[in-house]
Design brief:
Elements (H helix, E strand, L loop, with lengths): L4 H16 L1 E2 L1 H8 L3 H14 L5 E3 L4 E3 L10 H22 L1
Antiparallel strand pairs: 1-3, 2-3
Length: 97
């Protein structure tokens, strides 16, 4: 499946968050300043592309990486996306002050 550049960045970010623990629609919405509907679309895209690397935990009401599943994207890419998203969020904070 082909994704836009912005959605690809979000998919890599989802992969990073799964590596760190759990993620839900609200996490994606907050990080990227978008609707929860778009976050749902991104989670569905990740599930479609990497069905063995994500599962829903009903108790936590969040997605997690199944035990022994590996990340979908290389570490250097996940870290680069993490740094970029963090830099953009800092810039957004500066704009609101």
């Amino acid at each position: 499946m082909k994704h836009s550049f912005s959605q690809f960045i979000r998919l890599v970010w989802i992969d990073l968050k799964l590596e760190m623990g759990t993620i839900n629609r609200g996490d994606i919405s907050a990080a990227f300043g978008m609707s929860t509907q778009q976050a749902s679309i991104d989670l569905k895209a990740y599930q479609t592309d990497h069905p063995d690397r994500i599962e829903y935990d009903h108790r936590a009401r969040a997605y997690q990486r199944p035990r022994r599943a590996k990340p979908a994207y290389p570490k250097h890419l996940r870290l680069l996306v993490q740094a970029t998203v963090h830099a953009v969020s800092l810039h957004r904070e500066d704009d609101t002050q």
